[in-house]
Amino acid sequence: MRQSLFKVPLLVLCSVCLATPCWADLTGGLAAYERHEYQTAIKEFRSLANQGDSLAQFMLGYMYAHGEGLSQDYAEATRWFLRAASKGNIAAQFNLGVLYDEGLGVRQDYAEAARWFRQAAEQGYVTAQLNLALQYTQGQGVPQDYAEAARWFRQAAEQG
Fold it and tell me: How far apart are CA 53 and CA 154, in angstroms?
């Protein structure tokens, strides 16, 4: 069973936002999100996302995927995740893999899921490594290859 959780710890998000020029606005949006003040969070994230902030783009995608403060809309989540992923946001890359793997908001496409899982996995995202290993085990979207599956399982295990 593949990991399909969209969850990203706030601590990880905060550590990334400290390196962002608009960190005060981003931190405010994350704090509002944690307090379940979704409309405030959406306002902060949307402003930053439209300026190209990949973490804000990811958070909007996350909120659309979960219907937090917005109507659940996987197609809109996909659009925001794509923007963030194109800037190297690992969590967005992983979540695109999940959406393609499960056919949420997009046509189910195991090869496209594998492509996104691989991008995140190569950057050390453990859950993406596990999902990619499972795809190699099952031959979904990639040729069945137990040696390649073992390599990804091993990489994930080495990270804990």
Answer: 33
